[in-house]
Amino acid sequence: QVQVVESGGGLVQAGGSLRLSCAASGSIFSMKAMGWYRQVTGKQREPVARITSDGSTNCADFVKGRFTVSRDNAENTVYLQMNSLKPEDTAVYYCYVDLPIDRLSGSWTRNWGQGTQVTVSS
After folding, report:
1. Can you tell me the distance from the alpha carbon of 90 to that of 23, in angstroms, rounded to the nearest whole number?
2. What integer is the mean pLDDT of 17-39?
């Protein structure tokens, strides 16, 4: 019912930039948060950045000053602007959308995209 689709990945040289997009579609009437994880081959998936419904953002220490997370006015699309890319940023980047189920109980569900590959060459 809810679809999450990332785009914008690709191959870039060190020092370059990419902008990832994540669009959520379907029966979405409200949203708790959207964000990004990444997974380097052989390592666990790690959080990268997050933006909540009120617009507050969080970024992991390893991307602060280089990456920026933002959303559009409809609050169903999130972007990850990645600048000053390093080879160690090479990973599959996954978008997630947290959707509330019940306001009073605080229950929610996390929906994941399929991931988009980012490769940074030396």
Report:
1. 22
2. 93
